[in-house]
Specification:
- It is a single chain.
- This protein is of the alpha+beta class.
- The chain has one domain: 2-Layer Sandwich (Peptide Methionine Sulfoxide Reductase, Chain A), CATH 3.30.1060.
- The chain is built from 8 helices and 8 strands; from the N terminus they run H-E-H-E-H-E-H-E-E-E-H-E-E-H-H-H.
- The strands form 2 sheets. The protein has a 6-stranded mixed β-sheet with strand order 7-6-1-3-2-8, with helices on one face. A two-stranded antiparallel sheet has the order 4-5.
- Helix 1 packs across helix 7 and helix 2 (51-58) runs parallel beside helix 7.
Length: 228
């Protein structure tokens, strides 16, 4: 519920480590990657807890042209936030990332995701948020993305990069539904909101520190893409 996100979760976050702490370091790059070429722009969908932080991270990645918060992986068409928050629709809070593969590859996006955006060993939770809607999931757009995603998870598990097995799922053929307008660009619009300050801004700062070559100071916001 919204009360939980804005009040209870913010208070609880004071006693719960940020979700990215387990992964707040550069993990090995993927041994496999999607081959260059194909369409000028490509898309993929990431889920890893609250979509505010995931969106905020990818909006600062060079080569990403848009990052939109939304819902994926469920059984109800055009779900709303309250429906998804109930945990009954099967959706995960997600972010659809559109990127230029000539500037950043799918594998490089995965490396950023697993390094700074979440703790991939958590099951159906991140930080102060819990429920299937906060699961870690890669909603792949095609067979090449699926191949690379599954190989990368196996690679990181085999190397014992984390203290527990990776819980991140890989799912194909899922419809993405954009979230309500007030969820878009939330991190950029509300950097002082307690939940954002405690849980999500550390992820953006980790991106800047650990991936300076991938860092873009000015975020590619949804509002900017709409001409706002």
């Amino acid at each position: 519920m919204m009360f939980s996100r804005f009040l209870f979760a913010g208070i609880l976050a004071l006693a719960v480590p940020a979700a990215a702490k387990e992964a707040n370091r550069v993990v090995p790059a993927p041994a496999q990657d999607v081959a260059a070429g194909g369409p000028a722009l490509q898309t993929t969908v990431f889920a890893g807890g609250c979509f505010w932080g995931i969106q905020g991270v990818f909006q600062h990645v060079k080569g990403v042209t848009q990052a939109v918060s939304g819902y994926a992986g469920g059984t109800v068409a055009n779900p709303g936030y309250e429906q998804v928050s109930s945990g009954d629709t099967g959706h995960a809070e997600s972010v659809r990332v559109t990127y230029d593969p000539s500037q950043v590859s799918y594998g490089q996006l995965l490396q950023i995701f697993f390094s700074v955006a979440l703790d991939p060993t958590e099951v159906n939770r991140q930080g102060p948020d819990w429920g299937t809607q906060y699961r870690s999931d890669l909603f792949v757009a095609n067979a090449e993305q699926e191949r690379v995603a599954r190989a990368y998870i196996a690679q990181l598990d085999a190397a014992h990069v984390y203290n527990a097995p990776i819980a991140t799922r890989v799912d194909a053929g899922q419809t993405f539904y954009p979230a309500e307008a007030y969820h878009q660009d939330y991190l950029e619009l509300h950097p002082d909101q307690p939940y954002i300050f405690i849980n999500d801004l550390p992820k953006v700062r980790a991106l800047q520190r650990l991936f300076p070559q991938r860092w873009r100071a000015k975020p590619m916001t949804v509002a900017a893409n709409l001409g706002g």
